[in-house]
What does this fold into?
Amino acid sequence: MGTRRRARAIRSLGMCVAFVILAATPAHAAKAVNKVPSGKNRDLAVIDYERWIDTLKGNVKNFSKGSARDVTIVVRFLDKKKKALGVQRVNVGDLRSGDQSSWSLPIEERNRAATNYAFEVHAIWQ
It folds into this structure.
């Protein structure tokens, strides 16, 4: 009888731990990964990104041999039919050759219906 209670307690504990882990992860987080640099300029590229409820987060990398100053990411928010909803910008700072940086952009209310994103990365080259 003691062994059954112990097994039941361990099983209950495991279910509680699984519930806590699932509850801690954002339920509305939609992750989309763009691993291949896109666009004509492949020197600076958004290498991955993910959408949270009201935030878009990602990483940008400098693939060129030169340093880039004032790196800015322009995000075009698109609906299911690829119609533009709006544009927002986030400044990342400076990136030396081979460096990458994370970025985070609070999504404005008018752009929250977006299901697709188009990225442009701009910089001043040194």
